[in-house]
């Protein structure tokens, strides 16, 4: 397990950094998959050698891998279905690796990869060093409701003018630290009016990580709010319970008096809170 976690450690660290490391992080996803596959196919011998040295060092009994494996709690009179080798290799090691593969594939499918790379290539760090029009346009094609085929053509020309403008001529864009700074600078310099489609794309790139995290938080909260004891909640009540639970920081600044006054003003009631 330590070996598998070590393979994905660099990937975890990369995704905790800012968006300028997303491109490298997506490369690390492929690296992690390749190393996991190599461990699955050829890593058994070296892994067993390492584990055996550990067992000898701490005086731990090493099983004979040719002996039948008996599950704890099952009568030894029953015929064993496999030996120790099959159990630890196929049932334990390969199964854990397959779980890791499944998690990586679910988290980083083709659409997610294109989204993350599109965000990364918009980043203004190091004077737009990683800017790539073709890869940014792949991100745009994932939003057909916001960018039709005519808008994509216009965006392509805007991106060509935009990158020459901000990278080669306008020094106000030379020291930006992220997409947030880029968005502010576009508004300050009125370039959001000159390149409206580029500005729309930057806003999408800013909203994407927040929206994804909010959806995950909403589903996690739903498991706590809508339990088996109250699974007949209507949509309005469920929404009313979920929003304050998810946005705790925002609602903590609202006084109880304001909540009671709002509730009281919704309609005439016999009693007052």
TrEMBL record:
What InterPro entries does this protein's entry cite? AtLOH3-like, HATC_C_dom, RNaseH-like_sf
Q: Which domain of life is it from?
A: Eukaryota
Output the Gene Ontology terms for molecular function. protein dimerization activity
HAT C-terminal dimerisation domain: which residues?
190-245
Ranges in a coiled coil:
none
> Where does the UniProt annotation place the signal sequence?
none
Report the protein name in the record.
Answer: HAT C-terminal dimerisation domain-containing protein
């Amino acid at each position: 397990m330590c070996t598998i976690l070590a393979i994905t450690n660099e990937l975890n660290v990369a995704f905790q950094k800012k968006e300028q490391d997303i491109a490298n992080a997506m490369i690390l996803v492929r690296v992690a998959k390749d190393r996991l596959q190599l461990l699955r196919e050829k890593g058994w011998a070296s892994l067993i050698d390492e584990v055996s040295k550990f067992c000898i060092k701490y005086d731990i009994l090493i099983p004979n891998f040719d002996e039948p494996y008996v599950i704890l709690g099952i009568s030894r009179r029953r015929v064993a279905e496999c030996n120790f080798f099959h159990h630890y290799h196929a049932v334990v090691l390969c199964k854990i690796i397959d779980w890791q593969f499944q998690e990586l594939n679910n988290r980083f499918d083709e659409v997610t990869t294109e989204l993350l790379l599109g965000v990364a290539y918009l980043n203004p760090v190091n004077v737009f060093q990683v800017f790539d029009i073709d890869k940014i346009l792949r991100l745009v094609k994932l939003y057909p409701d916001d960018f039709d085929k005519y808008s994509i053509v216009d965006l392509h020309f805007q991106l060509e003018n935009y990158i020459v403008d901000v990278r080669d001529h306008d020094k106000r864009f030379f020291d930006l630290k992220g997409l947030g700074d880029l968005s502010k600078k576009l508004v300050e310099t009125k370039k959001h009016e000159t390149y409206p489609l580029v500005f729309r794309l930057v806003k999408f790139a800013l909203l994407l990580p927040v929206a994804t995290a909010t959806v995950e938080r909403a589903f996690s909260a739903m498991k706590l709010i809508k339990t088996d004891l109250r699974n007949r909640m209507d949509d309005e009540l469920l929404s009313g319970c979920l929003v304050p639970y998810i946005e705790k920081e925002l609602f903590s600044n609202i006084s109880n008096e304001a909540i009671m006054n709002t509730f009281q003003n919704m309609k005439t009631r016999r009693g007052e809170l």
